[in-house]
């Protein structure tokens, strides 16, 4: 009885975490879409870059944590994705014509996977 209640609570916590992750990724996507739709709004581009960089820096830190119990293969894949995203953002800083499209597409795929 106790084990079932514990398992249910743990499952609910994981669902809540996935929901929160999905929401924050979707916020990042919306910032990127807005920036790409209004390329002359430099502040919106910076806001999208900064938000997305902070988000993925947080994800990478969490993935590297000993407390993260995700499967090693999943962690490795997400770390690779995170490194790619951070490098792309750095490229965007140096090449203003670079778009968010690859980051946005990756983020949309991840958000769908969190449903």
What is the gist of this entry?
This protein has helices at 2-37, 42-64, 72-94, 101-113. By secondary structure, the protein is an all-alpha fold.
Question: Could you name the key traits of this structure?
Answer:
115 residues, mainly alpha, 4 helices, globular
Beta-strand portion reads: under 5%
Q: What helical percentage do the residues reach?
A: over 70%
Look at the structure and give the mean pLDDT.
Answer: 87
Low-confidence stretches: 1-12
The run of helices and strands is HHHH
What is the number of independent domains?
1
Number of strands: 0
Question: Using only CA atoms, what is the Rg?
Answer: 16 Å
From the spread of the alpha carbons, the general shape counts as globular
The total of helices stands at: 4
Q: How is the main sheet built?
A: none
